Amino acid sequence: MHPSANTATGNLQSGARVALLGMAANIVLGSAKIIAGIFGHSYVLIADGIESALDVAGSIVIWAGLMFAARPPDATHPYGHGKAEPVAAVVVSLGVIAAAFGIALRSVQEIFLPHHAPAPFTLVVLVVVVAVKELLYRRVIRLGHDTESTALKTDAWHHRSDALTSIAAFIGISIALLGGTRWQSADAWAALFACALIAFNGWRLFYPALHEILDTAPPGEIVSSVREAAAAVPGVREIDKCLVRKMGLEFYVDLHVGVDEDITVRAGHSIAHMVKDAIRQTDPRIADVLVHIEPATVDR
Known about the structure:
- The chain is built from 8 helices and 3 strands.
- It is mainly alpha-helical and 300 residues long.
- It has a 3-stranded mixed β-sheet.
- The two termini are 43 Å apart.
């Protein structure tokens, strides 16, 4: 097995463990927010807790997607199972958007209903939530960037989104406490604002995951580095097509290389292998390279 396969599998398994950690944190924090919201008369805290509970389902989907993506290629999936990773990200992001709309409808209803003033202790709960969620975001987003995992980046922004909604809840409850009877609906308005943040983050996560499923060319310098590595191989006269697509945490390259039209098939085959080896050495995430040899006109 090529080293890149072992690296990708290890990264996917690490991501799955981080998703489990996030799941456990969401269970604890979500339960705390819902209980505090019920006893503290704060709908924004209840809404925030419901969003965290939905994050638990999201973490389960992310974990399952990463574990499935870590499976090696088989007869029915010769390119591996990497597409499960962006599919999981799409499912979770759509769930986030749906949750935002559902909570927003309930928030609008709460604005026009009689309110009790929120309890001051709810602010302490929110401070703890923001601190824990921001720490989780930083850990998960770092791993997501290191591994180029769309699913992990989605999970990380789940944590950041939760921190942002908790900040909005803190502001809304503070206004309700300081403003008196006239401002007791401020927490419901804060919940509505939090829903807008949740929906925005859901869309922002959905877009790149969908593009990955559709084999959109990856951003960054990977295409140019592939072309430069191939062009530097002795015997390569020109680079025609250079196509790169992302499959999970790995990349697959299709390359058309022009060589001297008078060389033997064996010589062309040898150049193709050298091109493949050179490209795979540029980035450990490149799982395979398909090289098509074409004749190139040589000046005499």
